Amino acid sequence: MKKYQGLTKTEVDEQIALGNVNVSPKPIVKNNFQIIIQHTFNLFNTYNLIIAFALIAVQAYSSLFFLVIVISNTFIRSYQEINSKNMVAKLNVIVDPKIKVIRDDELQTVATQDVVLNDIIYYEMGNQIVADAIVLSDMIEIDESLLTGESEPVMKQLGDTLYSGSFVVGGACHAKVKHVGMNNYATKLTNEARKRKPITSELINTFHKVTRITSYFSIPLSVLLLYQAYFIRNQPIRLTVVNTSTAILGMLPQGLILLTSISLAASIVKLGKIKVLVQEMFSIETLSRIDVLCLDKTGTLTEGKMTVEKVIPIPNTLSFDFDMVMRSFVAGSLDNNMTFKTLQSYFGHEDTYPTIDCIPFSSARKWSCVILQGIGTIFIGAPEMILPDYTLDETIEEHKALGSRVLLITHLDMYTNVKENILNSKPIAAIIIQDPLRQGAKETLQFFNENEVTIKVISGDHPKTVSAIASKAGIENAEYCIDASTLMTDSDLEKAILSTNVIGRASPYQKHKMILCLQKHGQKVAMTGDGINDVLALKDADVSIAMGSGSDATKQVAQFVLIDERLETLVEVVREGRLVINNVTRSASMYYLKTIYTVLLAIASLLFNIPYPFIPFQMTLLDMFVSGFPSFMILFERNIDKPKESIEEHALRYSLPNAITIALTVVAIHLLTSYLGMELAQTFTILYFTTGFISLHMIYRIYKPLNAYRIFVLLVDCLGFLISVPIFWPLLEMHMITLELVTIIIIVMLFAIPCVSLVHYFVNVYVTRTYRHK
Known about the structure:
It contains 28 helices and 23 strands. The protein is an alpha+beta fold. The chain folds into four domains: 114 residues, Calcium-transporting ATPase, cytoplasmic transduction domain A (Distorted Sandwich), CATH 2.70.150.10; 260 residues, Calcium-transporting ATPase, transmembrane domain (Up-down Bundle), CATH 1.20.1110; 153 residues, Rossmann fold (3-Layer(aba) Sandwich); 128 residues, Calcium-transporting ATPase, cytoplasmic domain N (3-Layer(aba) Sandwich). Helix 21 links the parallel strand 22 and strand 23. The longest helix is centred in the C-terminal third of the chain and has 40 residues.
């Protein structure tokens, strides 16, 4: 192999002085000040600030308490985002890819941003091409799918250009950098380090949908309320502003998006502490909803720490020294995968016979070869891919059945056209390689089996080996393993992945197609992997998970990186995701109750030509016990069940019946108090207490089935509301409580319970029919 001196330190310094460094515009990461500004000056806070100014203008100071909540939310959200940003930055340093360059006649490892123009880089299998370069030596296979969309590897030879953003899938080479930084062909891809479909967040989609719908109502209703109050009923400006402000505030689900982003950001920090890098925040949500988890075998299900158990000679007439040939093979190969490193460790790498040429290993071929002077060509790889019709000895087959990996070594007495003549090669030995089951794998897979997640193992290894390892790991029906090399059509692939949990001899293309087949049948799919052959499948999986020691490609495509490589860590990631989603889903219904009934009450106020019945402080106090306290206490429950309902479905099922009942009580109380000749202040006092009761009744419905903890929370919540009302009575601005008012409140409450049940029945029928057909 030709020796290169590379740049000297002086030449590197000159390039740095000229600005020819591989530094591209970094992905936009907000600093702390920008985060604080973003969370302080936004549309939501502007909305609240305008309302606050209006209340100050009419000297309604007691109604400004909601600002405390707004300020607290702003502070908490800013703090949490800064905290999670710092955690992600710290973990990114751990997985940030490095590259090998030759400088001062030495092979050095540098950060990708320290590469300079004219550097000579040594690329190996799994590396990402970090800067456009010209191949100087040897032959290399490149995956350019991120650039061209084509999944087939491209062979690059002397003089060919390597483009940044692509990945090495086979072989190794020296290449001279011709572009750096902004001049790279794929600067954007190099910066972002990955290109995949954006995460679709059901939570955010629902929030935006509700916000869009409420915006259709809030502005016209607030204008109509102002007009009717000031110009038709001739109300004082203070009362007009206070009533209308309350209606507008009630239509905003204050704190819900805050609660969600804080919960997810807190999860990122929590997962970071157990060495999990979360590269996309909302992938936590997606992971909590997965139906299928697809695992690779080597490096994922197993430790990836291979050792040669034994070498079994196969009788032949060849006269050369086997150990010398194997040392020469190792010295002449351009591979750097785990299998090659295992062979290198076992045989050594003295350059005994000169290397004429080599063909590096690829996941599609599943073999590599080295052409040695005076010997011929030595092939090493999967037996069925080198000599499909060759029958292995029973002893070798037994090793496969126990989960060992088998490599066949063959010899071809030719120096050219070796690919075309591989079937004429003669077997000379078999190598038995052990790769032990990863610690905690069995317990991890048992958790997924018990939590409605189907486990499928898709590997490039021999079906017998994969089946044996899968059986040890506790995969269901692992003894039924399909050989993917026998699957000729897309239809065959589809049937296989839908009916079988263990598949061997799968090519990268087949892995990718299998993921797409599962998604086609409505399955949410998570994929784990560590090798370059997993990249295509990882890119299109709903959730992608890479091991910390995996290739640059897998770590940069993945949404999660398990830095400590403990498979059981994945259980904590799923638990955390489910915990967040279940808590946010239940909390959302508590917040949306007010949004729905505020719109309905605003419409009722316009129809009956009465002021909006509440003031801001009344709503703030109610919020504390309807959404604030109960949603906070939910966080202490570890509900890790797989989410059964979407956030939209849950909100309709729980919020809508109680919101409709509150609106109906407005009609009932208005008619009743008109009949009894009661004052408007008395009517609104009755309505406030009944609204509080019906809202707390929804909390009871959400908390069912009850346990000791939930009963305790409900009692504290109800007592807190009842005790707080007299404490803050002057600020509530309600009518004095009388026996007559108490009697009417009790009567309305007694009618409200069956009303909620009746409305819930019809809503439940509608929701079940609508969402079960989606």
